[in-house]
Amino acid sequence: MAPADIDTSKPHPARLYDWYLGGKDNYPVDEELGRRLTAFAPVIPVMARMNRAFTHRATRWLAGQGIRQFLDIGTGIPTEPNLHQVAQAVSPDARVVYCDNDPVVLSHAQALLNGTPEGALGYVQADARETDRILAEAAEVLDFDRPVGLSLNALLHFLSDEMGAYAVVERLTAALAPGSYLVISHLTPDFHPAEASQKVRDMYRANGLTLDMRDRDRFARFFDGLDLVAPGILAAEEWHPELGEPVPGQEGAHSGEYVAVARKA
């Protein structure tokens, strides 16, 4: 039985993502939508794994650039290796704060907060649009006068323009010190037939979920005022593949998402 504060009447993106990855921390309502979506588009679980692989590569790259602080918003249910494990494998003193709005993720926070003795970990239970709260609570672990790697992976496509997606990114990046980085992965309709993308959007909407799959130009807007680092905006599988192992089942598949990393001057 789910705890009282967990809404199992409709799917949640974090639990749906967990189901795609073969996890057990989801409910029948999540599995039902997941099965319908994968029946229509069987590649979706591979796409989820490709997104995670990008997250690992980008984190490894940031740590290699000397970033020692990370803020991961839209964390999702823990699936090893978690972001802090990747970062602390490069730099044991890395400090990481996770943020998600699903109580299921909170219930697994202990797994997220088991890091190295040299580092520090924190967790914020908040909606991504609660930027002031996120920044205030994250500041208990992170020093925002020093560079931070901000990760918004597989998150922003669940926020429409009307819900303030661009404002969220602007407020968060405004709080970052020069030398910080922004990492985003985002579903896009650009790599799929228009009718297929619309079908997936409709299936999410019918279950009370927003899914705004932005095209390349709308994705690029999230990086206004920042300096994109090479190789720029690409599909997830094309971004520094040398930094991580291939994703099982990836051959011939496409991530269906744009990714990019940008630096704040």
From TrEMBL:
Keywords attached to this entry: Methyltransferase, Transferase
Cross-referenced Gene3D superfamilies: Vaccinia Virus protein VP39
GO term, biological process aspect, one: methylation
One Gene Ontology term of the molecular function aspect: methyltransferase activity
Calcium as UniProt keyword: no
The name this protein goes by in its record: SAM-dependent methyltransferase
